[in-house]
Amino acid sequence: MARKLSHQRVTYVLPLPDAPGGHRLGVNGLTVDRQNSILYSAGRDGVICSWDLNVPLPSSSAPKDTSSPDQKPSPTGFKTQVQAHSHWINDIVLAQDNSALVSASSDTTVRLWRPHSESTEVPERIGKHTDYVKALASPGSHATWVASGGLDQKVYLWDLNGGGEVLNINAGGEDSTDKGSVYALGAVSSVLASGGPENVVRVWDPRSGKLVTKFVGHTDNIRDIMINQSGDTIMTGSSDQTIKIWSLTAGRCMNTLTMHNDSVWSLYSDHPDLSVFYSSDRSGLVAKTDMRGSADPDQGLCVAALQEHEGVVKVVAAGDYVWTATPKSSINRWRDVDTTVGIEQPPDPDRTIDSATAPATPPEKGPKKIPFNAVLQLSATSIIGGSAPTLNSSEPNLETVGLTLPVHSQPEETIEGQHGLIKCLMLNDRRRTLTQDSAGEVVLWDLLKCIPVQTFGKRHMDDVESEVNTVDSIGHWCTIDVRTGRLSVILEPNRCFDAEVYADETDLPPSDLYQFREDQRINLGKWILRWLFAPVVDEEIRRDSEYRQAAIARAEENARLNPLSTSVPGDDIPRSVGIPISNPQQRTNLRPSSDFPASPNVGFNSGTPSSNYLSTSMQSNSPFPGFEPDTPDATVPTNSQPDGGSSSFSSNDYFSKRPLAAPQTDNDRSLLSPPDAASNSGLSQSPAEPDKEERKKSLFGKKFQMNFPKKLGRNSTDTKPQILEEKAEESEISSIKEEKVYEPNLCGVVDRIRDDYEEFLATNPDRDLETALLPSSEDETPRLEIPSRTAVFIQEETGDTAVASDLYRGSVGRIGEDLERLKKSIPHWLGELLLKNQIPFKEQVKVAFVLKPFDDTLPPVVKPEPPAPNGAPPGNPSTNNNGSRLNANRMLRTKKILAYVAERIDPANPDEPTESVMPPEEYLELYCQKMVCSSLILCSQSY
After folding, report:
1. What is the pTM of this model?
2. CB 3.0-4.6 Å disulfide test: which of 58, 160, 280, 308 passes with 284?
3. In 3D, which of 521, 480, 519 has the Cα closest to residue 499?
4. Residues 485-533 pLDDT 10s
5. If 0-12 CB within 10 Å is exposed, 13-18 middle and 19+ buried, where does residue 414 land?
6. Is 247 left (phi over 0), alpha (psi -120 to 50) or beta?
7. Regarding beta strands 885-889 and 926-928, do their DSSP bridges make them parallel or antiparallel, or are they unpaired?
8. Do 499 and 475 contact (CB within 8 A), yes or no?
9. With 0-12 CB in 10 A as exposed, 13-18 as middle and 19+ as buried, what is 73?
């Protein structure tokens, strides 16, 4: 199977309103730094937070604080946070003596953050999988590596000092299956264990990567793994509601614990022998198990320590406290349960006491004992209350066991999170989006200005949509998602230029609309990209000016030192900078811009200095003569003059925009054409076209011979652009010298332009060197003030990864500082847009329709269809040879169709002044589906 080619895309994330620190979505990872009394948390929002606990946390071997539970510690304080990943964070571990924090994410990367460093840089990437990374394991605080496992069925060992991959293990082994993903990891210096939906625990040698053994016994996904310090005991928690204890020495399962009645999601222990551990499940129950002093784990004590309202994804403990993470953005702190104080005696059912006459029992002194109904049975063979020496010698009767009640039902403290976005909906105008957060708040966003526009409170999103949505029909140009609790906008190169909007339909201030022509359109993708990367454009213009000055000085010096080496420029020498061809594979035909006329038989080869060049350029200050490479990723030159039309529109489309100063020109009629005329137009036409003057006067070539009057202000002198076909023989191709290959990024775009400068100056040292940078002007893409906190990502998608990987991460406010990094990350298609205002070529989408008089009360606009031969249905495109079916750009306004109808039924009088002509939309109506269409409605909206 062929590998899918990679491509780069741009993603920008709209900033949320300023709020205190904390997570926006559910928390997936927790870990505690005992030395510094810091809690680290990581969640589905891709954020890592650090919290100052303000409580003493003795080491696991130190005695616990026996102070009164009523003495409340200081509240937890927010310390700092970092947006470490662009997708969910699934696990975190501390490493290198708690100076580094390693995180694993669904963005397929493993990153290392040094929270005590003053650097504000994004955490360093130390490893990468090809699918979601689900689990991490560290062999100890002094280890030099960390292990990661993911859905790609791989377990990697990564060097914590940035040395990359240390070891690569195929977690599925030789009998790898579709269920070989890794969901759980455990590690010590001598043993590494992995587990997942295959229900098998595999034990590996972390030095060689060889399989030591595997344990079979679970019947559902293995969710968590712990290994004791000596490396001979493994504990696993599974979705089959059991916790199993495996012995590496015996090579089998020693005990199966069944105190949970739901899927076990998390295990935690800081005891070197795992004799004291915590376990949590999907129902929200957290159990504490103490097996110290018991010959058999089944005889240990298990207590229902606390009960959450949702499933507990992660549980950690330190000192006298336990912290739990749930699908919510908050973190709860609970008082730990002391399992050494004993269990209260159960009530005796045979004993009846008159409560009125019985003397009051004085309260017992000392620590409060564990309620009997909070004790859990470890397994079917275990004894309630266990056999720990601290327990009361009398064994409770199993028949007295009733409903289990956890020791704690309310947390001691809640570390509050924020409300992240959980739903989004794109409106029909493709510029606004509705979102709803976890609190139910509905907000309307502007995707171009990157700001919230309106807040609707806690309402149903569907109700708000019906109020604010429009009947617009704009092309899809971006993808939106809220997977990290923020609104992300993804721009793919094959579709981000598909949407246009009329300038008079935007919310630009009236003072700015005067610079736009009537019915001028603005490309949404070009608009936002131009101002997201505005600092890049400004800096490259400055550098380009400096380079040209230095290049001119070098050329003049060379000409002075070697006056005979420079030939006198003639007609066969370039008079301006041309467009080079990057490599032989990309060398194809050159074609002129669709916005300017070209002579049919003029062509050139940029690899040969003696080739002919067009003497006219696209613009007065452009060094390029209006040509572009016809490559697979060829770009279409766009206008820098004040027009809004897309450069990809065919010149034969009726009413397409051309960058001319006149309000309306002959291009207005080109948006409307019969299917066969459209199919022969644009890029498919031959350079030498017969009857050119005759076709220039005809709307549909040979089908309709009709001169358009001056009624709509058209210019009959406009010529039709021709496409230059350059066919090279094999001998010519083989004789061409090897062309320079440019990098597919912004560096390559700049290098190509500078090589053109040098080539031009080598043959024209006495000529002015005009800039080749032609970014879009504010007449085409009005200025946008984008918030500086708007995050910007440049990502790459390849066929061997599940999600796009980040090539660049920054913000609008930092783009100017990151130019050197961006030059390697900005893809070629984006560089061509920013510096040359060129976009990848793509065939435009048209709609087909038929114009007929209403109830036959007006003369026909087009010839009626002939009878269908052989009983074929009328209107069949295969029998429609008279042009009754018309094609138009989907963005065509109906008033242009009305103007076309007016010309056909009421030709203009050349002697009549144009000022006295009534606009067609004032006396004509267009019906579609028996409904009157507004003059400003789009052609695509009528369907």
Report:
1. 0.76
2. 308
3. 521
4. 999 999 999 999 999 888 877 877 776 766 777 778 899 999 999 999 9
5. middle
6. beta
7. unpaired
8. yes
9. middle
